[in-house]
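Protein modeling request. Please complete all fields; requests missing the sequence field cannot be processed.
Requester role: graduate student
Desired output: 3D structure, token encoding
Chains: 1
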Amino acid sequence: MRKLFYILLSVIVLNSFFLTNVVAQNPQLNERWACLIGKRCDVVGANCQGVGSTGYQDVHRARLTTDPNLKPNPGTTYILECLGTSKGLCTTGNAAVDAEVFNTSITDPELPFNKATATIGYKFEGMYKADGKTTEVNPINNPTSDIEPIEWQSSSVDMARKYMTLNFVDLTQAVTGQENTLQLGTNDWETANRVCEIVRWDPYGVVFNSLTLEPVYNALVYLDYKDTKGNWVQYEDPMGKVKNPYRSELGVGTADDGHFSFVVEDGTYRLRVVPPSTTLSFPYDNKRLSSNYKKIYSDIYPGMLVGGTSPTFIYEIKQSGKIQHRDIPLISQTKTLSERKIREMEVFRNRLNNGKELFKVRLSYPFAKISGVYSTINDPPVRYKQIPFGKGVAGDQSADKDGWFSIEVDVSKFTAGEMFGEIDATKVDLTSPTVVNKQKINTNFFSLIKQQIKLLINNKFFAQADDTSTSTFSFDPIPSYLEGYAYDDKGVIIPNANVGVYLTFSNRPYSQTKTDVNGHFRLSSELLPLMPYKIRYITATGNVTPITTARFITQNKEYFVKQKINPFIAQNQSGQVIKGNPTGISSSSGEVSKAPLILTVTGNAIDKASSKAQNIIPIFNDQTQQNRMLIVLALLLALIIVVGTILTIYLIKKKQTQQPFV
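Delivered output (662 residues):
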């Protein structure tokens, strides 16, 4: 009897073990993100309640409401502020809550709240209920998907932001939302073809070069105030919110964009500037200020009274109810552009559910030209080929006066192992009369030849930006679908390993699964974030192998060919291509594509030794390179014919008009 008892006990224990492992193969938790509509409180119509008057109190306060077409799940809902740092991060405004949400130590410098505080001077001042006065606790507990308006107040070094909700969804339970629509595992698919509203307060000033008009790096801007006795005194904030002189997130004065901000109470102030070099000086000379400045800058400081024998500068700034804006030119001794490269100042990036990736980027240089968009291969990445505007890239070909540009890149037709990518940005002459004109695709005969030859040269030699006026920005890909094998650092397949997908700023898995005995796993598109993410493999013994999405694609490119898989085309758990929303999610049509995968193998894999494309394996019926070559040859042939015809006619006419020598 005792023997039978031990046998039964062993069976129960073993069954529990195997059941646990079987369950672990499926993702257990999922994150569902949704956009909030944010309105600045200093804008008419925002309907903010927590401000006594327009001006200092409502600066960097926003009123947040739910989108009626995109609501959070009922229950525990976190409110987050997502900041446009180069890598992107989202914070609840509280270190302890961040630690809970992102599963990171409260003292970890990489915790979003800690990182934002240290790098961009982030300060969270409060989250309030609809009345704008009563403090709201984060997370909120909403019984329905309709949440009351929230007012959020925070500040940071010049930085755009968007506001989002986050729900943790238990995939073992069916959660019903609006109109009995299944909200299970929807993640942020509803936002896939939507863009969260970006809220931005304009900088309160830019320091720039009077002749070249480019922003000035590392200028020290001081703020003085006039006391009750009429004396000028350097401003000191008792709350420690205002840095004086101004310090950017780089720990220097103005950053590469020249921006500075002082958010202070009403009063009378003046600004002082210490230039970063002896070739620049303050105040400016009106005769040495490029007339093009009006296309980029305004409210020039100091002000000037024209009259008499010489102009008189006005240094006083009176603030009453509205934060004052001033742009400050420094006299330059030379028209030579600075050797500092263009920098990314803010980045908002996500994949869309139509095989494209969306980029909203602010550069440090006004009207910078987007001089190249490229795919890459391998890890570390190697430039592969240029993606032309109008044929794979849509959007702005130059930044606006504030440095912002937006593009969409079609990644759905990439070859196996190819991914996005790199963007080149080039400085332009800001004093040119045509500087504000958007760059357009030239369609005349000679421009087409020039473009096609440039594309071929770039593709053949994998050209990188190498001049001081051009900067290259690299990005890890955001796959829409993961299927393949898990490899450790030595390239050995890892069986029975936990696989976690993590947002780049989080230590909590967005979704999880487990490799089988062969090291294979898959995660469908419903279980993957739209924002940039990373992957971790954890063995049974606890060894962790972190990998980038670029490494995963590089390691599995041969498998993609054999299985006809494109990681940039969305698939649901049934292997169906997703046109819009995934299975179980309401949409206008409710349709899920049942069409077969559009990938096809076009011949045998390229021999590794002979491939000039760094071991790229074509899996699409895409003859872009050959077509470009044919276009170039056709255009060159046409050019030869035209030139030859003109030359022949010229020689014939010349012969007819020539007189014989006497």
